[in-house]
Amino acid sequence: MPVVVYGITPCDQVRKTLAWLNANGVDHRFHDFRRDGLSGESLERWCSHVPWNALLNKRGQTWRGLPEVRRRQVVDQSSAIELLLEQPTLVKRPVIEIEDGLLLGFSIDRIDEALHRHGLAPPDRVHGDNGAGRHPARDRAGATAASPAAGPAPGPVRPEKPAGR
């Protein structure tokens, strides 16, 4: 399968990615780190596309929960891979393999561009709200968006913030 999404089910960015791929009819497979594991071969392959420190999620609870001495031991690709094999949830998510390419994180534009580059793009891309669940052809007030012939649909209507906040 040319598109594989790696991550964990509870991750919001993984869920958005999977929702967008599903909404756009993109054939893909999901690989859950917790259920399906993570191999050193995969990490080595990913490090051939992106720097090792880009794969390491230092913003999450798992990283913050590591002892300081363990965090300081991560100084190169080899030590990062060792830690990622011990703690797969430290991998920045989602990791998206599209044929011979690799993307980190959720971005509709980057995913769409990569799918086009590999001839896998959906014919009628759903724009919407980054795949987070709202109907893409409706704004927040529930009105139907413009037809495709009239140009792109308007963005969502956002209420103004109250003064003083």
Topology:
Blueprint: E1 3-7, H1 12-23, E2 29-32, H2 33-36, H3 40-47, H4 52-55, H5 61-65, H6 68-72, H7 77-86, E3 95-98, E4 101-104, H8 108-117
Parallel strand pairs: 1-2
Antiparallel strand pairs: 1-3, 3-4
Helix pairs in contact: 3-7
Key features of this structure:
8 helices; alpha+beta; four-stranded mixed β-sheet; 165 residues
- Strand fraction equals 5-15%
Number of DSSP strand runs: 4
User: How many H/I helices?
Assistant: 8
The ordered H/E elements are EHEHHHHHHEEH
Taken from the alpha-carbon principal axes, the silhouette is elongated
The low-pLDDT segments are 128-160
Q: Quick gist of this model?
A:
The chain is of the alpha+beta class.
What does this structure look like?
- Strand 1, helix 1 and strand 2 form a beta-alpha-beta unit.
- Helix 3 packs across helix 7.
- Strands 2-1-3-4 form a 4-stranded mixed sheet.
- It has 165 residues and is of the alpha+beta class.
- The protein is built from 8 helices and 4 strands; from the N terminus they run E-H-E-H-H-H-H-H-H-E-E-H.
- The N and C termini lie far apart (48 Å).
- About 20% of the residues have low confidence.
